[in-house]
Design goal:
435 residues, alpha/beta, D-Maltodextrin-Binding Protein, domain 2, Chorismate Mutase Domain, subunit A, 3 domains, five-stranded mixed beta sheet, 16 helices, 46% helix, globular
């Protein structure tokens, strides 16, 4: 079966890394137009600066990698990743389902939300107020915010501008009534201006790093490093240096990252449901569900072997992935029955995009289960799940079922490690090295 062969291939790559991929060189894709993540500097040979640039430098230095910054435009992100122009995009990339189908996101590092920067603020106070015929709303072409603007403002005139910096200038030049930006960029856009007001935020988004799909070793090692640097305060220090105070909260924590991975997996389900319907396939195939569970358990065993610890019991792992399957089916069924749901076009291919993307997310979930804190409190996890599981069409019942399955994993007994006696916390530095 083609799907099973793809699953086995992904698991094998996760364990060994893609054959022949270089270990001593890291090419980081960056736009240079998105403050405070990546800002180009004037002068020949000048490297960019910003939060993600600083993270890339810290990672490369600690891992002993030669670092190269590769410029790209937002409209070319997925294509450039697919052709291997760079190994990882680190430029304030927002987690979106069509991007999950094209590459492998790391654990999230920052959260943000879309906002409107408006002239004549006395004319409107809510995002929906600007959705009127003749109102010109500027947005960066090819980025996440263009998708957001298209979904929220169907009556206004959307002006897509290829250079993100030019969106701000067009607003200042009074060629626009409104510009779409986010909670992290808006302070820089307001600096040196007068009379511009902020409306929002009206979305909640995660920023992460998007790794080429054929670099699973790099993606997993970045996760390991980010979790460790969140724990020791390095990421917090970089946030304080480069980001607004509101973005200082820790994001790359084991529980938060696990819930984010589950949410990312569920966010693909509306696309999966539409792709199945267009191909004349049933939404539910029990035989495939059994294969998904078997691959998930095998992935957790492979991750535990790499970490040289015993995995959580199969029963609790199976229950967690079964809860994800049930939640996924709920989201699929509800999405395909929603006449107003508009999937991203072109829709990623089911076999070459969506299913491999789900497997890559499953691989990250397997790693995160091994660093999940022991004995998590049920109500704490339920509250975290209510906040973190944001996929449309997901019911609270399914959200709580996922939370309770996570609690069960955290309370499950694990066997002794290969050396020493008794239970041992996972050493994050031992999970995976870059390959």
């Amino acid at each position: 079966m083609r799907w099973l062969a793809a699953a086995v291939c992904v698991l094998a790559l996760a364990a060994t890394g893609a054959a022949g991929e270089p270990a001593a060189h890291l090419r980081v894709g960056t736009t240079g137009d998105y403050s405070p993540f990546s800002i180009a500097r004037a002068g020949e040979g000048a490297e960019p600066e910003g939060f993600d640039v600083a993270v890339a430098r810290a990672y490369a230095e600690e891992r002993g990698l030669a670092l190269e910054f590769v410029p790209f435009r937002w409209t070319d992100l997925v294509a450039a990743l697919g052709t291997g122009r760079f190994d990882v995009a680190m430029s304030g990339v927002t987690v979106r389902p069509e991007r999950s189908a094209a590459g492998r996101f790391t654990v999230p590092v920052v959260e943000s939300g879309a906002v409107l920067l408006v002239r004549q603020p006395e004319r409107w106070s809510e995002p929906e107020d600007v959705d009127r015929p003749g109102i010109r709303i500027g947005v960066n072409a090819g980025g996440h915010l263009e998708r957001v603007a298209g979904a929220h403002f169907s009556r206004a005139v959307l002006v897509s501008i290829p250079d993100n910096r030019a969106v701000r200038q067009a607003l200042l030049d009074k060629n626009l009534h409104v510009a779409v930006t986010d909670t992290l960029e808006v302070a820089a856009w307001q600096r040196g201006t007068d009379g511009l007001a902020v409306i929002g935020p009206f979305t909640r988004d995660r920023k992460a790093y998007l790794v080429r799909p054929d670099r699973p070793g790099l993606a997993s090692n970045l996760d390991t490093w980010l979790l460790a640097r969140e724990r020791d305060g390095t990421l917090a220090a970089l946030r304080r240096e480069h980001l607004p105070v509101a973005a200082a909260a820790p994001v790359a924590t084991p529980l938060g990252s696990l819930l984010a991975a589950i949410d990312e997996r569920l966010s693909l389900m509306p696309l999966v449901g539409v792709a199945k319907r267009r191909s004349g396939l049933p939404l539910e195939v029990p035989e495939r569900e059994f294969l998904v569970l078997d691959v998930a358990i095998a992935g957790v065993h492979a991750a535990a072997k790499r970490a040289r610890i015993d995995p959580p019991p199969d029963a609790v792992v199976r229950a967690l992935f079964q809860a994800q399957i049930e939640a996924g089916k709920e989201v699929q069924w509800t999405a395909v029955q929603d006449l107003e749901y508009a999937p991203p076009e072109p829709l990623p291919d089911l076999d070459s995009g969506l299913r491999p993307g789900l497997l890559r997310i499953g691989d990250r979930i397997a790693d995160l289960l091994l660093v999940l804190p022991e004995g998590l409190e049920k109500e704490r996890v339920r509250a975290a799940a209510r906040d973190a599981l944001r996929t449309p069409y997901l019911s609270e019942r399914s959200s709580l079922a996922l939370a309770d399955a996570i609690v069960a994993v955290s309370h499950a007994s694990r066997g002794a490690p290969e050396t020493g006696k008794g239970l041992r916390r996972v050493d994050l530095t031992r999970l995976r090295r870059p390959q």
